[in-house]
Amino acid sequence: MRFVFTFYVFLFTVFSTSSQSKFKFEKNKSSISIPFKLINNLIFIPINVNGEKLTFLLDTGVEKTLLFSLDDKEQVKFFNLESIKLKGLGSNEAIDAYMSSKNKLEVKGFVDNDHEIYLVLDQEFNFSSQVGIPVNGIIGYHFFKNHLIEIDYQRNKVIVYNETNKKVNKKLERRYKEETITIEESKPYYVSNVTTDGNTLPAKLLLDTGNSDAIWLFLDKSDEIKLPKKHISDYLGRGFSGNVYGLRGRIESFKFGSTTFKNPITTFPDSTSIRSVNFVSNRLGSLGGEVFSRFSVFFDYPRQKIYTLPNDKVSVPFNFNMSGIEVQHDGLEWVKEMEPANNKNTSGYTLKLDESHVQDNLKVKFALKPVFTINSVRKDSPAALAGLRKNDRLLKIEGRSTHDLTIEKINGLLKSEEGRTIELVVERDGKQYKYKFQLKSII
């Protein structure tokens, strides 16, 4: 899918030593089940770090564990700090960071007592505002490397299996499609049959749960990959080394598991944005969350296998944000609300309506509500042509206050169906403006 903040922080080079990090079951359990939040096809799980509960993006596209936001977690302690550099997607230079060792990570009895963490100092890299919840970091390879991991996108659960669990092996044999993957430089790779401009080729793709799009292809890595005639230029997100730009269009098809997907929206990052990435041999792109979310997926790094079973979402068409605006969560504010007062509740406030009337059956309460602003506007898009601008504050969408919405719901409206009329009320320089435009698919 088209995630409004398509975030690609998953490829980087670390100039440091590697640790002997290993997650283990603390007790003799056959499995543990971890609930997750799914936001725009990205998975967020709770993990305790040195005794403090934090939220991590679960990302198969990273090797090292990263922390970049501890705004409300001042009590977290880190040990053995060492200065390092991180470099990856984007066109700028490497960024400063620290490496910390001997950290304890734990979730539901799944524990690593010797975990390396990389602390990123650049607060521009904090993407909490783009997903609408506080996110503290990213975890990848070290979570997956020693166990069979199931990601159930319909039940929003990550399940980690102990090696002694024989029941799940029978389940995989009966119902799931088994395929071989390779683990190279601590990341999983898969070969998919990709068709562009009538030409089908086997394409080696990174399996990346930290990428919300369906598929990425690199035009400069193979002459056989053809750019669709209908395409748009777009801002793709923020990487370690700056902003990432590229093109979007629809290719003819690609295959994952037992399913061939036709006319998927495909992303083609530009060569400047990926020039700092260390590519494994023959890699041509990535598969992301828009694909995985249509399956129940088992990652088996030790045996270099992947198991897939389509879910109810497998036949849903590939759509994208047709408005041209990208929305971000811009903090919280106190909002006054009125609700019927319980006559038996003497603690409710009375609301004075004017000089001569007092309404006794209402009470006033204050609640923290989200604030949303426009982060970018694509040139010549329906929103741009209507007059919307970057930094406009969204007040209402379709007559509904944005205080009652989430980024997920806003994005759902902006990609709902071609031809749908969207009405927005925004605030700009202290004044309110109303805009109306129609969603239009241009790829």
From TrEMBL:
Residues 54-91 form the Peptidase A2 domain. It comes from the Bacteria. The keyword Hydrolase applies. GO terms for molecular function: peptidase activity. SMART domains: PDZ. The keyword Aminoacyl-tRNA synthetase does not apply. PROSITE patterns: ASP_PROT_RETROV, PDZ. Residues 335-429 form the PDZ domain. Gene3D superfamilies: 2.30.42.10, Acid Proteases. GO terms for biological process: proteolysis. Keywords: Hydrolase, Protease. This is Aspartyl protease family protein. It comes from Flavobacterium buctense.
